[in-house]
Amino acid sequence: MKLAAPTAEGAEVARGLRDSLNFAREPLAGLTHEERLALRDLLRRMLGESGSQGESEGVGEGA
User: Fold this and answer.
1) Are 59 and 40 in contact (CB under 8 A)?
2) Residues 54, 37: contact at Cβ < 8 Å?
3) What's the pLDDT score for residue 56?
4) Chain centre distance of CA 11
5) What would the pLDDT profile of 26-55 be if each residue is shown by its tens digit?
6) What pLDDT does residue 44 have?
7) One-character DSSP codes across the chain
8) Cβ burial 1-16 (10 Å sphere, 16+ → b, else e)
9) Is the Cβ–Cβ distance between 36 and 25 less than 8 Å?
């Protein structure tokens, strides 16, 4: 078994990213599942990523 551990800098970057995303937690929690899917798909289009429409992986699951 291999052990993966973040460097001190990596842990700081991850903490900063989590902290910067906290502002959206409440507004996003108010969206329906369908609204979260639509938002995800729109953001992917904006970034030029392809993703199949209606895919529910990772959207609102366990959040």
Assistant:
1) yes
2) yes
3) 47
4) 18
5) 888 999 999 999 999 999 999 997 655 545
6) 93
7) -------HHHHHHHHHHHHHHGGGHHHHHTS-HHHHHHHHHHHHHHTT----TT--TTSSTT-
8) eeeeeeeeeeeeeeee
9) no
